[in-house]
Amino acid sequence: MNKKTILAIDVGTGMIKVFAGSLQADGSVAILGSGAAPTAGYERGVITDINALTHSIRQAVDCVIMAVDSQATGSVYLGISGSSLVMQNSIGSIAPTTPAAATSQDVERACKAAIFAVADSDYENLHVFSAKESIAKPGAALEVEAHLISAPKVILQGLTQALANNGLNLNGIVASGIVAAETMKTEILNRPNNFVFMDIGAGTADFVIYVGGKLCFSASLPLGGDYITSDLMQGISVNRAHAEEIKRYYSRLSPDLRNQGVVLDCNDYGTTDKHISFDFLYDIIESRVDEIGAILYDSVKPLLDKHLSVSGQNLECIYLTGGLGTMPSMVSCIAKVFQIHTETVKPVQLADEYAHPANTVCYGIIRYGAKISASEPVTGGGNAWNVFIDKAKKLLKF
Ligand SMILES: Nc1ncnc2c1ncn2[C@@H]1O[C@H](COP(=O)(O)OP(=O)(O)OP(=O)(O)O)[C@@H](O)[C@H]1O
Ligand SMILES: [Mg+2]
User: Fold this and answer.
1) 47 and 143: one domain?
2) 55, 136, 252, 289: most buried by Cβ count inside 10 Å?
3) Whole-prediction pTM value?
4) How many CB atoms lie within 10 A of CB 104?
5) Residue 204 Cα: closest atom of ligand 1
6) Residue 47 half-sphere exposure toward CB, CA atoms < 13 A
7) What digits encode the pLDDT tens for the residues 298-342?
8) Which residues contact residue 312 at a Cβ distance below 8 angstroms, ignoring those fewer than 6 apart?
């Protein structure tokens, strides 16, 4: 792979997923191959064993390197989520360059002021978005409410160092939910102004709120399909892999099978006694789906109300991705609790083999990496971390 090749690594609770792509002349990225490996050392957004996690990442990267038949890795970007990230809003206020109107440079300066207002030397800022801009009257100060996403330096540097020790030099670490939402946002036809993007995976549910077309808040909750899998493991005494299979089998069935006396053959290699009534599976799975929907509602609704009320607007749509975002009953549960149109989205620009909602984050990371690579070719020398910090600073997004 050459320097215009981009490697995107999505650190998920269930799997590490990797895309290798090649930057095209028009700034788009062509996917060359993908790889995956089971995750170790990372649970519901918390790094529990950095060496085990590094090993899993290296395994997944080796899969993709084999798939695209190359030894070099090009530019490497890694997405993280969960409680390793801190999401917050902060106000920055500056005097505009000219009293007539605020320019994009003014907004950029105000965002920097917002970052400084909450700066903590133990944290590194990964992304900044201008959520709301206001000037009380001509000539007055420009006030920007910025949404900031940061992560502890100890985690960023620890991951960067551990991967470098394994022969993988990172060019950047990004917030998974943010890059997924920002990428899908540009690809949704007839996109509304007020919407929520949710990536619900195995252990984390990332949500991003857009009001008036602007990203105004995001968060990551420790919720996901793993809870359903664990319930099934206990409820029908099967191992994790078997419970995963049963969950996916169930999710393809119609809820109309309920109260029909249907018994499903849920046997796998080594079992003969797993003839389970549909109603029993329904009760186990749907009670957890309802609980996840209720927690999401309790977490998202107050934030939505706060940001929508300022502009007097209404929520128009919820977009779901991630593995659990494909489950029909999860989609209808979210639609029911929020009382809003909800649909599953996936990266349709990708070839069919990659265009799955669970790949949206990986797609978002590679598109993010492509944007940086297109604007600033990767230099050969220098410390990878410093190179990343310089790029991240230049890539402040407004
Ligand atoms: N068809 C399906 N029906 C129900 N659940 C599904 C289906 N496909 C995948 N899942 C579930 O989605 C989860 C995996 O999703 P995903 O790959 O997005 O998670 P992850 O990225 O590994 O984890 P996270 O982002 O939460 O850290 C698993 O719990 C899996 O069982
Ligand atoms: Mg994920």
Assistant:
1) no
2) 289
3) 0.92
4) 9
5) 26
6) 23
7) 999 999 999 998 878 899 999 999 999 999 999 999 999 999 999
8) none
